[in-house]
Amino acid sequence: MIRISKALSLTTDFDFGIIGTSAEDVLFFDIETTGLSAYKSNLYLIGYLTFERGEWTLTQLFAESMEDEVPMLKAFCETLQHKKRLISFNGEGFDIPFLTTMIRQYGLSLSLDGIESLDIFKQLRPAKGLLSLPNYKLKTCEKFLGIDREDIYSGGELIYVYFEYLKTRDPEKLKLLLLHNAEDLANLPAVLSILNYSYLASSPSYIKHQETVHLDSSQLGPGGETVLSLVYSMDLSVPKSVSYERERFTLNVTGNEVNLCVTLFDGELKLFYPDYKNYYYLPMEDQAIHKSVGEFVDPKFRKRATAKTCYTRRSGLFLPELSPVFAPVFYKDYKGKVLYAEYAPALFNDQIKAQAYLRSFFGLISGKKPLS
């Protein structure tokens, strides 16, 4: 087994406190194998990155034969005993199951079960709607963040390079094998910052500014429309500006600032009462009134209210909602999917509700919840 360790000069803007740990307590790791199945393939490289006494250290354990797999596994698990969190890219989908299977096959008294894991690839799932990358491979994420690398090979392509190395012991081929793994690891601390897009929904925020802008008919057609612009300040910052647009809203994130623009509804909506058995419906007025008042109305002009007719109508400017943050809640009709609240600037004086309103849009983006 070849063991290589070297100090690296790395920087990351990621706040490890967000994931409840520190740089000193984590171990970044990545493995290289000759195939996808631990039953049919060999493990030829384990690389890991640690931060101690203010310095990053890259360690690579390289197998020059199958006999090196056991000492590699033992050396890796020994280091792991001194850390609290494993960080990887698709490690929970491949690396950890592969190592666990190999440990079991060799009958070793080792285990990866006692340590927490953070898989960057898995944690990216809530951010995919906002990022809209062509795919979420490590190199694609690096490119999005502007991280350069020297290595040009994929893990699959390097399998053949490894087999050639075993035959020739060519140091240039060894260099290629180590470089790929080294750059995967050296870039991971910087790639961590991409997770801030996933954590936006849970980040504390507060309203900095709000204004309404009326877009007239020359811009939009008959009637025009009114757009509410909300500017939030977040506790965390994203490394690169992104935007998301749907029919009635746009969301832009730059640094630690979020601008949410929502088209307000100008017109008439209905406020439905849930206890319809206590109401009468007045067809002439097209509204419901409580029985305590309706008893004085001529029976010819009233009906027992149903869930569909138990409402009053109101006209004005309304704010669309994805969840009932502000009350009371209005609808266009009984089966309407979009919720509305009467708009007034004072709604967003309540910072808790203002934050909940923004989070509902991040929830829509991550879960593709329909807006209409």
Written overview of the protein:
The chain has 372 residues and is α+β, with helices and mostly antiparallel strands. It folds into two domains: 2-197, Ribonuclease H-like superfamily/Ribonuclease H (Nucleotidyltransferase, domain 5, 2-Layer Sandwich); 202-273 and 310-372, no CATH class. The chain has helices at residues 69-80, 91-106, 120-123, 128-131, 138-145, 155-168, 171-191, 217-220, 291-294, 351-367, and strands spanning 2-8, 26-33, 43-52, 55-62, 85-88, 116-119, 205-215, 225-234, 242-246, 249-254, 257-263, 265-272, 279-282, 287-290, 303-304, 311-321, 339-342. Strands 1-4-3-2-5-6 form a six-stranded mixed sheet, with helices on both faces. The mean pLDDT is 92.
